[in-house]
Amino acid sequence: MTEKQKKKITSVLRVFIMSVLPPVRKDRIISQLPKCFSKGAALHTEGGFNAKVKTACHEQRTGTVGFKISKVIVVGDLAVGKTCLINRFCKDAFDKNYKATIGVDFEMERFEVLGVPFSLQLWDTAGQERFKCIASTYYRGAQAVIIVFDLTDVASLQHTWQWLEDAMKENDPTSVLLFLVGTKKDLISPAQYSLIEQDAIRVAQEMKAEYWAVSALSGENAREFFFRVASLTFETSVLAELEKGSSRCIGDVVKISNNTSNMYATSKKKHPSCCQ
Ligand SMILES: Nc1nc2c(ncn2[C@@H]2O[C@H](COP(=O)(O)OP(=O)(O)OP(=O)(O)O)[C@@H](O)[C@H]2O)c(=O)[nH]1
Ligand SMILES: [Mg+2]
């Protein structure tokens, strides 16, 4: 199949998909790379999207990116605020009562980045030890890992190393984007915050993660953070697609759409034996 034919089929499929799905919400349209939170711990500090990515989007050469769903896993100690952070962004809601996540939960968020549809599936995992085994079976095949800690609880920052190790057992460390997020910013004074921020930035640098501080209660930085996750995951996906050379053949796209159960089976690793 020639490049021209592939491009034609891709654009026909895109028009078809866009006509069967409701339009992307106006407040999920990303036309510029959002800024990082801290230049000291950012995945990259360039002012805009990669030039190759911008050109590819403009010329509709993004291959399967517009049809795929990128998997993002959210991990961290119990009660650090993972569910609340996701709910603040996805539902603009906040619940002050703690309800432990049992196993996993997920939310889908559809974006449009540089004119290309892009979906994130946010996997909210349980922090409680007794549910960890079930939750860890959902770690594999992630494009991004969000490691959450509570800014008021320094132990939860130390534990992020263990969460990183567990998440990376199931993923390829060279291709996963990492984010380190401190929550409950509303609960600490600016002086207390700047103390923990120093430690958090150091941890993020060592992990090669991008650092953010947020509050699900006030909503501070929640939207900015998820926009950054969506943008960087999108950028990485397009670059990977460009590196592969030409986009995949049409058969692959149809297979992905028809078989959602295989959508995340990108790793050949087995589930931990405790969960079999
Ligand atoms: N003040 C404040 N409280 C928060 C914030 N985020 C979460 N909380 C509270 O912290 C508690 C735990 O929040 P969850 O989001 O359920 O925690 P989780 O990390 O999902 O916990 P597990 O599901 O057990 O792993 C709840 O009582 C929330 O109301 C925040 O930004 N500010
Ligand atoms: Mg939860």
Automatic annotation (TrEMBL):
Per its UniProt record, what Gene3D superfamilies does this chain match? P-loop containing nucleotide triphosphate hydrolases (3.40.50.300)
Query: Could you tell me which CDD domains the record lists for this protein?
Result: Rab36_Rab34
Give GO BP annotations, semicolon-separated.
cell projection organization; protein transport
GO CC term, one of those recorded = Golgi apparatus
Superkingdom in the source lineage: Eukaryota
The membrane topology of this protein is: Lipid-anchor
* Transport keyword on record: yes
Q: Which residues form a coiled coil?
A: none
Q: Name one GO molecular function term.
A: metal ion binding
> What EC class does the entry list?
hydrolase
| Primary subcellular site in the record, as a coarse category | other
SUPFAM superfamilies named among the record's database cross-references: P-loop containing nucleoside triphosphate hydrolases
Catalyzes what? GTP + H2O = GDP + phosphate + H(+)
Record keywords, A-Z: Acetylation, Cell projection, Cilium biogenesis/degradation, Cytoplasm, Cytoplasmic vesicle, Cytoskeleton, Golgi apparatus, GTP-binding, Hydrolase, Lipoprotein, Magnesium, Membrane, Metal-binding, Nucleotide-binding, Phosphoprotein, Prenylation, Protein transport, Transport
The EC number(s) attached to this protein equal 3.6.5.2
Its localization reads: Cell projection, Cilium; Cytoplasm, Cytoskeleton, Microtubule organizing center, Centrosome, Centriole; Cytoplasmic vesicle, Phagosome membrane; Golgi apparatus
Cofactors (names):
Mg(2+)
Q: Which Pfam families match?
A: Ras
Q: Which NCBIfam families match?
A: small_GTP (TIGR00231)
Report quaternary structure and partners. Interacts with RILP. The GTP-bound form interacts with REP15.
Q: Which family does it belong to?
A: Belongs to the small GTPase superfamily. Rab family.
Name used for this protein in its record:
Ras-related protein Rab-34
Q: What is the lineage of its organism?
A: Eukaryota, Metazoa, Chordata, Craniata, Vertebrata
